[in-house]
Amino acid sequence: MQDENLGEIHPPEEFPSKEQEQEETSKTEQQLNESEMIEDTGSIRPQNAKHLIHCLTVIGQVEGHYELSSQNKTTKYEHIIPALVAIEQDRSIEGLLILLNTVGGDVEAGLAIAELIAGMQTPTVSLVVGGGHSIGVPLSVSAKKSYIVPSASMTIHPVRMSGMMLGVPQSFSYISKIQDRIISFVTRNSHISEKQFRSLMTNTKELATDVGTVISGEQAVEMGLIDEMGGLSDAIASLYQLIETSPARYPDSL
Hints:
Blueprint: H1 18-41, E1 43-44, E2 53-63, E3 74-76, H2 77-89, E4 95-105, H3 107-118, E5 124-132, H4 136-141, E6 145-148, E7 153-156, H5 169-188, H6 194-201, E8 213-216, H7 217-222, E9 228-229, H8 232-245
Parallel strand pairs: 2-3, 2-4, 4-5, 5-6, 6-9
Antiparallel strand pairs: 1-2, 7-8
């Protein structure tokens, strides 16, 4: 009986070239790096966009010199600070979008991050979603343009101290100086007056067991604390406009 398969020619198996293998490896490494970046710092850098922007999230509690419980959602300042330095130096990154949903946290760590953002040449836009409470207020106003969604809120209150504190005049003087630093930063980077901000901070009629004020997104804009009301698309459009109208960072010398 004649074999029907005789005489058939089978094409040789195609094996990927070295270039294809390297490309696949590069894509895999990039995906792993992006996953690690999101896990470690809560940040991501979109590639296929009109402008290359870096998205940085400040969520949960801003962690300072003391490590918080693993059950707490935290933003670690030792991750954020070097990331900001890298973003400012990287010419391929054209803008920085900061998304905030924070309850506050360590005062000095939060203020340090806010000062770094305020001192960047990179175009920056912040967007408060959920909440920008406590030390989240300076972080919210640190960008060149700030936005807040209608459902978000912000809590403004005096500086709190945790742990043992000596009940002496020097302790209260120290707290007062920290508070003055925060007020100075907020009023320099927003359109709210010092008198109004202090009034919100020392209000005794708003919170049941504390001193301070909770304001809505609309109120934050009316008071001049936040620049505009808007959502994600508004913040990105504003950042694109800043990118397109800002001078080049660190231009090459002639």
